[in-house]
């Protein structure tokens, strides 16, 4: 009987992280989680510098996994090597026409042209003001893009190292998938989850803040603050970024009610951040660990495994 295996490999400043999931009926188990260190020659401040050394690290990862033949896996592109934004198009416009039109309009969203980028789009259910779309009969699309040159080099390194990339997507999307999966499940049990939930994913040098609304991630913001930021009070730096994000969202979308903050950091750092957030923010603050749904023996040690988990979940949820 063919096993239903899904694999994810994240490329971040914390290293290459590999997660293998297996679906059995309605349950999901983790078969393996492996980490390979990446030097600053390979990646720095969440941007790939050298794909030759990336190949060397991927080859080491392949040997650690120990499988024969090509290993099919979804790869995550670092935060600073990918772009995420939102675009409005007429509601009666065909999806393929929207995608073609973006080729000429991509530079209006990102510092890259359609000619030099790989990009993809998906329609999202964006919250409306009093039931009316803020721009009338328009649909809103999430747009993700990365430079062709870098993506081609990642593909080449992965294939040469013994992998078969099933997808390449921004790490940011993979991160939010781990929370969205659980929020959507909670919505079916508790109608209060219909409100907005802010999510913070602390990284070492760069972190991600997103907004989940009724199962859709409708806002992404990378922030230049991390666990290892050289600052006298990193916790206060995070609180400042959360406040700034809330002010921005309330200013542009005053009809969106945000009442929760998910801190995707269930260690001592996360606990300290939660204590400070609860004292200054008017939000229900929750420490969230997407690995809690797995048995203790299946969970990896340490932080930073959310992106690879989200990549492995890509074709499951």
TrEMBL record:
Organism superkingdom: Bacteria
Identification of the protein by name: Type IV pilus assembly protein PilM
Species of the source: Acetomicrobium hydrogeniformans ATCC BAA-1850
